[in-house]
Structures are given as C-alpha cells and as structure tokens.
Amino acid sequence: MTRQGPCKDCSETIHVTPEKIKAMLQMLIDSRHVELADDVTSAGRLAQCVSCTGYTLGGTCKYCGCLVQIRTKIKDRGCPYPLTPKW
Q: Chain-wide mean pLDDT for the chain?
C-alpha cells in the first residue's frame, strides 16, 4: 500500500489570515455565544501549542484538528493533548 498525501483540498501548511481568524471568532460569539479568554491567557496557550509535538501544518492540532489560533482564544476550551493537557 502506498502512503497517501494530504487530501486534495489541503496543503502542507495552514495559513489563515488574522482577518479570517477575527471573523471566525466573531461568528462563534454571535452564533454560539462563546466567551473569549483574555489576551494574556490566550497568548500563553498559543505559545504552549506552538511548542507542542501536536502542532502540525503550521496551525492545526493533530489531536483534535482545530485551528489553534481559534481554540486558544475560547475561554471554556482546554488543551486536547492526551494524557495530560498542557493548559
């Protein structure tokens, strides 16, 4: 069996502009009434994600598939790292 590469819609890296991140967060706030973590908390979470072995394709988590720039900003979200979550 040959190893299959990324799906046809994926690239080797994920790049989402800050404008799209902001729009996605606003959609979550408007439609699901999520609360955002403060800037210090979300920056600390993001730093932990970027240094994690689960951080893949320049912006996604291999454990849950989320965009870490979104997940780290949502107040009630936690780290999906198996065994011991990092935040």
A: 89
- How far apart CA 47 and CA 33 sit, in angstroms, is 25
Q: Is residue 64 a contact partner of residue 55, using CB atoms and an 8 Å limit?
A: no
- For residue 72, pLDDT over 60 is answered with yes
DSSP per-residue letters across the chain: -PPP-S-TT--SS----HHHHHHHHHHHHHHH---BPPHHHHHHHHHHHHTSTTEETTTEETTT--BHHHHTTBTT-----SSS---
Q: What is the pTM of this model?
A: 0.81
At 72, list the tokens: 């780290």
Give me the amino acid identity at 74. I
Closest by alpha carbon to 87, among 39, 52, 35?
52
